[in-house]
Q: What sequence folds into this?
């Protein structure tokens, strides 16, 4: 990765919040113009980021003229030491990131904007965008090509709405929100009813006498909305359903990855992290700072407590208390889940031990019976 210009270690340390260490005669003279993508492929002209413990062990193989490391790395080479590696990467990439292409301020001639829509100062509307009646778009918000916005939608200031997003009627979006390409907000929730008791209901109460007569699924209107609070980011092709009544809400500062499905009437707290391909059932509550790892599935009406973690590919069928880590299917407290896995792995030897004990017990019983006969 090329830097905008050649920089000294002191200049880079100032940007990323680190301290320069190493031989004084070298650290004052070293300048770099690029950062290696991988420390093991670095050249003598690069700066290398070495944070992983496995990579720290391979430092002798790194050819970079200088390093960015944590305090754990023991080396005499010229280096910038940082306490928070990911924060350092965030600062560095923010400083060198190219400005993304956005449409110019104003409305592109091919866009369709209803006359009743209100656009704030500095709004940019790209090609083939549709904005429905009664919408309000805040100042300096950018709407990329191909996005469709329904009626009475409110979008705050300094938002970035990616290409091809679909935002349904009466959705409310706060300030500085980012929607990546193809995000969908405000689809109807998945809710149906039947006039008569359904076979599903019969089965759930243990009745096996099922009917063959048609009993159509009747769509339940979802007349609620979706509310996205400030500083939320929503990934590509993620869908968030509107509520049956009231609002599906996403709290301030929450970050949602690509391909996530959030069902109707969910309440997601502040600064929550939800990782890709997660599916969250209807009416769930996920409290502040919880982390839902990739491909987790959460059943309806579940509560995930503050600062808890649901590990990847877990199937959550019961509430998760605050600050606990749950894993597995069905998800349980992580230590319990590990213990269960260990026990399962030991089953083969356990069964062999039980078989051996039963055989020895049978021989002992036979011996005791034989001894009793002799005494008689």
A:
């Amino acid at each position: 990765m090329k830097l905008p210009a050649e920089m000294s270690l002191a200049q880079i340390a100032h940007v990323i919040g680190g301290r320069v260490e190493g031989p004084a005669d070298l650290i004052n003279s070293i300048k770099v113009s690029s950062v290696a993508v991988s420390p093991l492929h670095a050249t003598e002209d690069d700066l290398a980021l070495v944070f992983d413990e496995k990579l720290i062990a391979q430092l002798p193989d790194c050819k970079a003229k200088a390093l960015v490391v944590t305090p754990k790395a023991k080396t005499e080479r010229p280096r910038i030491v940082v306490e928070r590696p990911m924060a350092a990467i965030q600062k560095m990439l923010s400083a060198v990131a190219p400005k993304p292409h956005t449409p110019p301020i104003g409305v592109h001639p091919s866009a369709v904007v209803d006359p009743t829509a209100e656009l704030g100062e500095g709004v940019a509307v790209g090609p083939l965008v549709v904005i429905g009646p009664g919408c309000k778009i805040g100042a300096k918000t950018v709407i990329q090509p191909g996005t469709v916005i329904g009626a009475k939608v409110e979008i705050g200031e300094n938002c970035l709405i990616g290409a091809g997003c679909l935002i349904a009627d009466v959705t409310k979006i706060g300030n500085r929100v980012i929607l990546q390409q193809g995000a969908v907000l405000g689809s109807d929730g998945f809710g149906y009813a039947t006039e008569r008791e359904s076979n599903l209901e019969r089965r759930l109460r243990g009745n096996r006498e099922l009917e063959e007569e048609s009993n159509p699924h009747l769509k339940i209107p979802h007349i609620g909305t979706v509310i996205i609070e400030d500083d939320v980011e929503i990934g590509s092709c993620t869908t968030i359903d509107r509520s049956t009544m009231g609002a599906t809400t996403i709290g301030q500062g929450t970050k949602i990855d690509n391909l996530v499905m959030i069902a109707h009437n969910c309440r997601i707290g502040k600064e929550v992290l939800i990782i890709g391909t997660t599916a969250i059932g209807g009416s769930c509550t996920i409290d502040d700072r919880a982390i839902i790892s990739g491909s987790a599935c959460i059943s309806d009406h579940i509560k995930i407590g503050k600062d808890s973690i649901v590990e990847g590919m877990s199937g959550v069928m019961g509430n998760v208390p605050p600050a606990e880590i749950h894993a597995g299917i069905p998800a349980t407290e992580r230590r319990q889940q590990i213990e269960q896995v260990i026990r399962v792995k030991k089953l083969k030897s356990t069964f062999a031990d039980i078989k051996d004990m039963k055989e020895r017990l049978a021989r002992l019983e036979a011996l005791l019976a034989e001894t009793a006969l002799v005494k008689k």
The chain has three domains: 2-96, 106-192+215-335, 346-376.
